[in-house]
Amino acid sequence: xxxxxxxxxxxxxxxxxxxxxxxxxxxxxxxxxxxxxxxxxxxxxxxxxxxxxxxxxxxxxxxxxxxxxxxxxxxxxxxxxxxxxxxxxxxxxxxxxxxxxxxxxxxxxxxxxxxxxxxxxxxxxxxxxxxxxxxxxxxxxxxxxxxxxxxxxxxxxxxxxxxxxxxxxxxxxxxxxxxxxxxxxxxxxxxxxxxxxxxxxxxxxxxxxxxxxxxxxxxxxxxxxxxxxxxxxxxxxxxxxxxxxxxxxxxxxxxxxxxxx
Length: 261
Ligand code: HEM
Ligand code: HEM
Hints:
2 domains, binds protoporphyrin IX containing FE, single chain, 0% strand
């Protein structure tokens, strides 16, 4: 049941981001393609411009999404009060969804014209987003507890050894030997070792998990240090983006932009 809702949430996250991009492109592509001067004569200028009803709204809602995506994840990860509210990996997916949806909205808010200090804020957002995608690949290579704590090399080795013992004692399978068999021939090999029909898929999954753990053990130390360096890009650029965004919002408020208020 949890698996179903998890898959549904991922599907909805992707569908919402794709639908937002498609709708905004459909409505505004003829406007965004024009030069800055020609835009003034476009019928949607008042609406789609960065300070217009839709353009300004996209900036505000997109920024709110990014802030919620950012601070909800940080609160869940760092504050004891929230440490039991859902698994950390689901919160990371929510972080990725809200920050991506927010970044798409902010991109349309800029109407793809970049000038002044605020464009540095936009490019920082782009760098944070791209580094986020790379970080996500590294993140999944590092085994963690349900609470999201990284496992040490020794803990991962212990997990692998426990699996080896179960495979040996319960099913009579020697991990070192079975690991020489290719994935393609694994089914036939397990049948040859008299694994019953009932247990076949369970044992096959265990053998494959054991292989995946061996693969990760070989790369764990490298991945952990790579992930430390990765934070050095993702965090500072997020901070630069936030500081410039605060200055930008203060400036536009100073010049009297109020959106619907
Ligand atoms: C990460 C968040 C944001 C980024 C990267 C961003 C970026 C930009 C950019 C690149 C422009 C066009 C500047 C130009 O005309 O050369 C712009 C304009 C504007 N932004 Fe934002 N923005 C963000 C958030 C916001 C928010 C939250 C608000 C509202 C409070 C806002 C209100 C405006 C307004 C009113 C303009 C039009 C200013 C004008 O035409 O002089 N922006 N923004
Ligand atoms: C675009 C706006 C984004 C901002 C401002 C942002 C900001 C942050 C910050 C400040 C953290 C550190 C949280 C902490 O350690 O407490 C973080 C973690 C992370 N973010 Fe983002 N992020 C953004 C988008 C993304 C995207 C698009 C992805 C992936 C596709 C992503 C993937 C990650 C990952 C994997 C972590 C590490 C989680 C961990 O170490 O526990 N982020 N992000």
